[in-house]
Design goal:
The chain is mainly beta. It contains 2 helices and 15 strands. The chain is globular and about 50 Å long.
Length: 262
């Protein structure tokens, strides 16, 4: 009788242990549940938006509301002025990015995560996230705004760059991202914030990034380079009425540098 009681106790313990393991295995959403359609969001960032006197050696951290498709999130991440990154590291739902070298002193940096960043189930953010910080005592607050026009109407989803210098193509004919970037809204309007006042006008580039590679290839993508640009003076004046008409068909291959807005 004592032996039977012992065996009964062992069986009872085994059942309890098995139930615990089964419960752990079923933690989280059960398979076959409703599909995930909720877009992820950025819930916090470091440095804080608008932070001043940020250490030049600081890392950038972006925390998302859920587990991300890490490759798409890393591809959607950028900093302006453009810098090289040492590495990307993930801590759960937080992306940590360390620059290859220190940030420049007395400089405003704009961190951007485009709307293409997707969660683990492939649901994209849908709206971009952007914030700025400075390694100096002030932050650049001038802005450039306007509207991109295609066939007489506002064009949505168009990439717009504001460039400190007239952009030049590489050996393949492609143009790389300039210092500042924005994407047009449904009615074709855009706003580029935290622009640094300069003595010379910014050159403007607007194009439809067909292959989403972040490059403008005039022979393959509809767009234009507007040398007339926008002057954001040292007094902090901002420009809010630029019209950037895109050319269709594609711009003339023999004159890739002509400004379509002139």
């Amino acid at each position: 009788m004592k032996l039977q009681c012992g065996r009964l106790a062992q069986v009872t313990v085994a059942i309890i242990a098995g139930a615990a393991v089964w419960g752990c295995a079923r933690s989280g959403l059960p398979p076959g549940g409703p599909p995930d359609t909720t877009p992820p969001e950025v819930i916090s960032s470091r440095p804080l938006s608008g932070a001043l006197m940020v250490e030049p050696s600081a890392a950038i951290e972006i925390s998302f509301s859920e587990e991300m498709d890490r490759r798409s999130a890393e591809k959607a991440f950028s900093v302006a002025p453009d810098i090289e990154f040492r590495n990307f590291r993930w801590h759960g739902t937080t992306l940590e990015v360390r620059p290859a070298s220190d940030f420049s002193n007395f400089t405003t940096y704009i961190v951007r995560v485009t709307e293409s960043a997707a969660d683990f189930h492939g649901v994209a953010m849908g709206v971009p996230f952007e914030f700025a910080f400075s390694t100096g005592e002030t932050i650049d607050n001038a802005w450039i705004g306007g509207r991109v026009i295609l066939t007489g109407e506002g064009a949505s989803g168009v990439t717009v760059w504001a460039c400190r210098h007239i952009p030049q193509p590489d050996s393949s004919g492609a143009y790389s991202r300039c210092e500042y970037e924005a994407l047009t809204t449904d009615d074709g309007t855009f706003l580029i914030a935290h622009v640094k006042p300069v003595d010379e006008p910014y050159s403007m580039v607007a194009f439809i990034d067909t292959d989403l590679d972040g490059l403008y290839v005039p022979e393959e993508e509809t767009g234009g380079i507007f040398k007339s640009g926008a002057l954001v003076s040292a007094s902090g004046d901002s420009i809010g009425d630029l019209d950037l008409p895109l050319e269709l068909p594609l711009i003339d291959k023999t004159h890739p540098h002509d400004a379509t807005g002139e």
